[in-house]
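Chapter review. Work through the record for GST C-terminal domain-containing protein before attempting the end-of-chapter questions.
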Amino acid sequence: MGLDITVYYWGPVGGMNTYGRAIGIYLALNQAKKKYPSITYKMKGPSEMPDGTGFAVPAISIDGTCIAQTPAILIALGEEFGLLGRTKAERLQCMQGIEDMNDVFGEHSKWVEDEERKNKWFAYLEKKLAGKQWIAGTDAPTVADFHGVFAFEWVNKKNIDFSAFPNTSKWWADIQAYPVVAEMYASCVDGRTMIPP
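Structure tokens for GST C-terminal domain-containing protein:
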């Protein structure tokens, strides 16, 4: 599978030494390389995006067609590389999981002051993860789990305690230990970070 893939983002090559909002994208591409060793991708800064791509980064080009916005990119990569799940139910749960993790990112700062809101969200995730290792109930992580790494990095940055939610805590430990994720954490040297400091 020889595809021409370029990721356009501020980091780690576009001016910020951080993976940031593109964490899930890089993880999906790194996971795809394990199944399709011929896959390679380039990283470029936002100033190098083709005209007409839009303003939001990250953006990605696959064989010359560009798409922006992290959730849309994750769905496209998931479809391309089999990282959305195998069954219709898994694919639907994966797409919902991408949006759930997008909401976790959007909501996380409110949880610092609003314990009730925090508990409502973690109760939802707890139920969703009941009896499952991964967000979509798949046998391996999907792009939803990879996007969760980005969201939960922000949860941790705000020191939001979710230890009372064992399914969610187990998922977080499992995804951090998953090989491509562990490799990304290990690459955070010489000032590189997962999210902006």
